[in-house]
Amino acid sequence: MTAGVSTVVRPARGRGWGRRRARRVGRAVQLTVLTLFGLVMIAPLAFALYVSLLDPADYLSLVPPDRLTLSNYVYVWQHAPIARWYLNTLVVTALVVAGAVVVNTLAGYALARFRFRGRQVVFLAVIAILMVPLQAYLIPLYLQIVDLGWLNTVLALTVPFVVNPLLIFLMRQSFTTLPKELDEAAAVDGAGRFYTFLRIGVPLSLTAVATQAILAGTWTWNSFMIPVTMTTQRDMFVLTVGLNSLQAQHYTLPTVQMAGVVLLTIPVVVMFVAFQRHIVPSVASTGIKG
Amino acid sequence: MMTTGSAASDARPGRASRAEAVGRWLRRGSVRETTTAWAMLTPAIVLLLWWFVAPIVQSAVLSFQEVSKFRFDERRFVGLDNYAHLFADDAFRRSLNITATFVLLVVPAQTVLAILVAAALQGVVRGRAALRTAYFVPYMTSTVAVTTIFMQLFVRGGPVSSTLARLGAPDVTWYADAGMALPFLVIVYVYMFVGLYIVIFIGGMESIPASLYEAATMDGAGIVRRFWHVTLPGLRPYAVFVVVAGIIQAIQVFDQAYVISGGTVLGSPAGATSTLVIFIYQQAFRLNDIGYGAAATVVLLVAVIVAGIVSRRVAPRGAE
Amino acid sequence: MTTITRRRGAVTAIAVMSVVALAACGGGGSEEGGSDEGSTDSPSREEERVADVTVGYSAGSLDAYLEAMFDRVEEELGVTVTPVVYPTYDDQLNQLPNQFAGQTAPDIILWDNAAPVAQYAAEGVIRPVDDLLADSDVDLSAFPQALVDGWTLDGGLYAVPSYLQNSAMIYNMDVLSEAGVEVPTTVAELGEAAQQVKDATGKAGIVVLENLFHLTQYVLAFGGGWDYGRSIDSPANVEAIQWLADLYATGAAASAQALGATWDGEAIAAGTAAMSDGGPWYIGFMAGSAPDVEYRMLPLPDVDGRGVVTTYGGGFSINAAAPDPKTAMDVIAVLTDATAQEAIVTMEVGFVPAMTEFAETYREATPEYAAFTDEVLASGRTLDYPLQTAEFGNALIAGFQGLVAGNGSTAQELLSDLQAQFGQ
Question: Contact B263/C263, CB-based, under 8 Å?
Fold first, then answer.
């Protein structure tokens, strides 16, 4: 679906060739600008990759390829249970994403498609909750976790984060774009509201659901404040916390830090790419609506 | 759970007119609707109450108390003392100013940039997925990493800052200069977040039916007019999301400012990056004055709720 | 079909989980922060020796060393040590108050320096150890007096020293010779040297990591000190702060941030600054990150040229709510005994052992540390921050940054304000 680009070639109004060439040049310029922008966006990660391959003594200088070294990654491997940290992070992320997709999608749909008393209140409450930064209630949250005995467990890192007001908001907005006629048509055919949700609402909003999964996954994977507060044993660290602990006592090791950044970010990028390939076909297959 | 669609099956001959039967159907539908709606909402509501509302309420309660740093059971009820102190506190007022400025700079910048890029991307067929991934990379990279790298770029004499200095910007280390630290923060933040909004707008644009564009083209609309009359209206719910979410997230900016102040007092330099959440965090965690930090949070929350209510009155179609 | 059932199943599962969890939570009562675990009536349970002790410390250079020491504790006492690890020392300081509030703080805490201890001691969440010393194997005379004094507050000893830190002045000899400057011996010379470096090479003469510790070194160099809040606005302090701010104005001094460094060492290593205050931690760092840079580490220049250092260090404290302080003390004794002290050197932790005897061993193994003899260390100043250390540090640095940014205030005004706020 190439929305936004005219697929109709207008017949020449006497200036056909000029127009077509202009359009092609315009398109080339567009592509160049977009690519440049893309390069700018990945430059920092590329920089991190480069620094991670430097010997600490070479930090912040440009070196020929033969001086590049994997010593920082070796350092990480030797000084940390990194495999365990990867595992922890994967498990936590998978659990949160699975839960989030279910819970937030349900809530978003309910807020978007049903008329019921209290709808406004719930929606406003969701937005209000969104406004409160984590730092403001982290301490009561911590005490709650302690009271439950969930410290240093997977539960502390997953259950509180399955529901997310921002994702509910996202799903709601996405579901509001679906035409109401669909629901009515389904009702006429005798479908229940929930069935309509599952068989019609969700498949048509797969992009949003996928976006939700990506966001929940990225947030959980990169989250630091919660895991650092809720886990105190090295084996229970997630990647962010663990990699942050790879410093000398009184100073950071920048090259090791960058190795940590690479180790932390590359999996997310890979997951994103893999997921993307999944969305595009499904969007195309749902066909044209309306 | 099947709703009977036909009013006729409900009408008993001679007993109810069709209108009444339809009315009964509607009401039955709406009761069932309410139940289904609440059922679908239940997991979210339970979790929200348990993990968000409960700690937030507790925090609000703490705002009326003076809490001993180390023993939470040793609290003194001090009523509105924390709030009085808050409003007299220059640092708090300053943090409100800084946050407001930040939001006003960031939200338009990232929204407009995201729409333009997403729209431009629609015209690209090959490489679209690669570009989309590239734009999203900063959002996926850890804040610490991105901010640290930007710091290197904007140090006095660094690649970006010296180029900008030649164009008239002050020749300083941006993030260490009281005047340029906030612009630096804005740049890093927009850089990190624009990718997210690009992805969301792309999703939105892909949900606009191609038939609408074809119709517009038939009517003789050029690129700009197609954008204005087809794309933008179709993006409205997503634009609302991006703006509202953008404002909310910008108000809560913390990570980038935290990294800039690494090793030294938060809000460096000289409080120029002391945003609202930095202020709250500093009170609660560095200065261990939890009641005070909680009071600031409550003020934030109330301000936002009031703003929300006011904006609904003014523009009732608002977030619908 | 299976998608529906799976989804519905998932929804039900979550709903059930929520209900069950809520029910469980209902009994927890999150309103009260104080549960009854960790009661403080431990003295009467002296006869019970716990088999398990938690030790909290921040990750970094000490990891391997501490793990080895914990194994020794297990061997010698039969007590298992469960480490409570914080990613960084900052995290440790951030988390501890919450942990005390939630009664989850470790039994034994390793501090990097005595600065935060005043608050914790005043609140009574860590206990003085004098009464436990008698029955333990700890011999305080093996440590420099300055160290022991540093851990003593109001007549009570609050920690047993583990490793030693001291402050020093670091000189990047490459930059100094480039500027044609000699190593200064007095603060007056220091100021001149800094200015000359700036004039001759354009680089910063002094780099300052703007936090309480580093600013305090300059205060001490001028003969001042905070004296736990009694002399915040003393003339020597005012002179020191003003002197530093004046150097900033000409570019002779700059913050680490402004030089693109995350801490002062990076600037010294990169050669963007000539001098900085620092300590033994530079040795390991410079060896790894700037092995070709020639540098020297000497006592800080003071007013009359004799040199001054601060002697402080890491130490182990006992949680006031620890169920078995006696065992905790025994564990600490093992963690700080001669074998442990020697291991600091042999395991190349990069720290200086606290025990004088082994500090000597370290000095012999580390030529860069030659200037810090026993006499120098023994007569070192202690960190005498005002009691509300975190708040004071915050206010001082924020005020100093404002001063430097030219907000119109003076050092005198700043310190007088601080005296009024935090003095005693």
Answer: yes
